[in-house]
Design goal:
2 domains, three-stranded antiparallel beta sheet, 3 helices, four-stranded antiparallel beta sheet, elongated, Rieske Iron-sulfur Protein, binds FE2/S2 (inorganic) cluster, alpha+beta
Length: 185
């Protein structure tokens, strides 16, 4: 457990240091489409990064675009946008996701969709990154849960160091989330 926590922490340090060193550089961006080519309510499939599973771009209104992975988080069936209802539909088991947030609304899916961060400039829509907050939160929760289990199981040597590393992870995750939020806005 402490080893896992330490590896987790080291990974975050590496991520933050790398991004600190990259400060001042624009995040990698990829043009997806011309704004004029997608009508309000329309959608487009694209790959980002190249050769990754398909993602879907949806134009919600004149100003707003959203993009997500196109695979359902239940059993990876394909999702179909329903822009008027502000949702994405998975016909496999009637799963629904909120179009504005990617959160599951109904059916078997429990995990939100990974969101592609977007930027609109010079008449084009650009993908600028993948928002993986869900993964971070799940890992953080797992870390705390494992620490608690060790404590309740009576393993006295584990809880204190694991809890300390978990707190460090929490601080690092807060910085990471702030960075990701900055990418999206
Ligand atoms: S695969 Fe999408 S709801 Fe089951």
């Amino acid at each position: 457990m402490p080893l896992t926590s330490s590896a987790f922490t080291a990974g975050h340090f590496w991520f933050l240091v790398r991004n600190f060193l990259r400060q001042g550089q624009a995040p990698p961006a990829q043009e997806i489409a011309r704004v004029a080519d997608i009508p309000v309510g329309g959608s487009l499939l694209f790959e980002y990064p190249a050769r990754s599973p398909a993602r879907v771009l949806v134009r919600v209104d004149e100003e707003t675009f959203v993009a997500y992975e196109q695979q359902c988080t239940h059993l990876l069936f394909l999702l179909f946008p329903q822009a008027e209802q502000r949702q994405l539909h998975c016909p496999c088991h009637q799963g629904y996701f909120d179009l504005m947030t990617g959160r599951p609304l109904a059916g078997p899916p429990r995990r939100p969709l990974a969101r592609v961060t977007l930027e609109v400039r010079d008449g084009s829509v650009y993908a600028t990154g993948i928002l993986c907050i869900v993964i971070i939160i799940v890992l953080q929760l797992w870390l705390f849960t494992a620490t608690m289990n060790a404590y309740l199981g009576g393993d006295v040597a584990v809880p204190l160091p694991a809890a300390l590393v978990s707190l460090v992870c929490l601080g690092l995750n807060a910085g990471l989330l702030r960075y990701l939020y900055g990418l999206e806005h």
